[in-house]
Every structure is written in C-alpha cells, then in structure tokens.
Amino acid sequence: MRVLLHSFEGKFPEKTGRTIFVLSEIYENENGLHHHFIESKDFVSEFDSMITTYNLEYMSLNQMKVIQSLWD
To answer: Is the pTM of this model over 0.90?
Structure first.
C-alpha cells in the first residue's frame, strides 16, 4: 500500500535494487493460448530451476479477456 500512497503524492517509492520484467502475450483465441502452454511444457523445469537459484518472484495472469483493443 505504501507504493500506491507514494503515487498519489507524486513521489517515487524507495529503490529496492530489483529489476522487474513484464512479458505480455496476446492471442487471437483460446487455441493460441492452449498451443503456447503445450509448447512451453519443455521449458518448465528450467524455469523452476531459475526461480529457485536466483530467488525470483513469478506471477502469471492468464486467460484474461481483452475488453478494448487499439486495433479494433
């Protein structure tokens, strides 16, 4: 909640030294997402190893619906 309050006050939150990467993938339909999960199963063990080795935090938000697109 501190970060949100800093935003309203026009202040930046304290630096943590961490880097945040955001990867967004948008598929035309659920078949594209399903295909992505099938293809990525070969890399899950390496990804889990990276999370453990480097103490990474991981958040996945999937099967969300696009309600407004810039291209429609």
So the answer is: no
